[in-house]
Amino acid sequence: MIALVVWQQLLNALGWVLARIYDLVPNYGLAIIILTVVLRAILLPLGFKQIKSMQNMQALQPRLKEIQKKYKNNRQKQQEEQMKLYKEAGVSPFSGCLPMLLTLPFLFAMYAVIRQPVLVPSSDPQHQGTFVVTNNHLPQDSSLFQNVLTHENTDFLFMNLQCNLVGAGTQVPIKYKDPTDGQVKQLPGPGNPTDPTGAPIYGKNDSQLPFTATTQGVLDCGTKRMPDIIPYILIVAVMVGLTFFQTFQMQRASPAGAQSSQQQTITRIMPLMFAFFGLQFPAGLVVYWTVSNALQIGQQTYLLRKGHIGPEALERQIQQQKERAANPPPQRRGFMTWMTDRAQQAQRQRDDIKDQRGQQPRPKAGGSSSQKRSGQPKPSGGQPKRGGSGKPKKPPQPPNNAADGRKDQDRRRRGASPGNQLSRNPQPQPEDQGDE
Hints:
Layout: H1 2-24, H2 28-42, H3 44-59, H4 61-70, H5 75-89, H6 98-114, E1 118-121, E2 131-134, H7 143-150, E3 155-156, E4 159-160, E5 171-173, E6 175-177, E7 184-186, E8 201-202, E9 218-220, H8 225-228, H9 230-253, H10 261-280, H11 283-305, H12 311-326, H13 335-358, H14 369-374, H15 402-414, H16 430-435
Parallel strand pairs: 2-8
Antiparallel strand pairs: 1-2, 3-4, 5-9, 6-7
Helix pairs in contact: 1-2, 1-6, 2-11, 3-11, 4-5, 6-11, 9-10, 9-11
């Protein structure tokens, strides 16, 4: 639904631009040519890129055939090597059809804008016997819409741009579908033998037009088949010839065997298909497509002369891809990259804080926390280490009186080893005897 609305807006925009150009250049054919040039100028950068991509894709065909032949029994390896080749050359595998996909939407859009408005009977009871305009994308207050609706001033190069080659040189009946019985009938008005009186025409949704218009039974495409058909034949021939030359130009720029059998078939069928369309399409659309092909050929000629396309250009592109892969340029730090770095830095800081909180405090040297709480003295530095003789020493005997206990505690404070503690019946020391 949204795509349909966007498409209708695009058609209305093209119709508005065409009407404004017609106001400046009051010639229907010249207005179509100027609009075509404007469209091609807008699409010029994308057109250059797609032409180069399409030609480079064709130039890769010989290498792709070698890969298919080498890995014909290994489908997965074949696809991997093909994608590797595409990446080295900087080519998209879908680039061969891009120029056509780029121009086809505008071809359909121009057809919707250029064709004559469709008239249907009004459903308003107050406007019985009148007709309203449908499928129109030209501004209803423009002079171009008035001329197109009344089939006046639409000639260019001896052609009525509302006519096609099939109806050239004849009076073509203008028909409509009657909603009452579903039959296709000829509009009333001049040229209708059964109802030569024209009916009033209203705008979209039965709106009043700024000018007076009545229906016509026929579209004047000439009075004699010959010579009136000659301009139509010439313009279709030029369109088909330019389409053939465009494809031939790209084939010449590609190396031998570059195009696959499917691509060769398409290049042969496409001009013939457009020749068939040229028989049915209005001459105004044929003028648009002819000018568009001429501008496309001009773009390709410029790229060929400048060396932007061709086998040599592809080799340069592959070499540049390899150099960029070997020495990648520094990445530009955009806003999103800056935001990502900030978020990662903040996350690392949070992780560091969690690690610091999760670590247990290490006990200080010189005793355990239980010893500090119980008030016990620290072990002396002279305490023997385990593992000397493998046998634990006998713990010291408790003193037999309070005096001996106090002396023992004093010796321990001074750092005496447990092995030199006082025995239960101590012997008098020499210095004590000397004092006596």
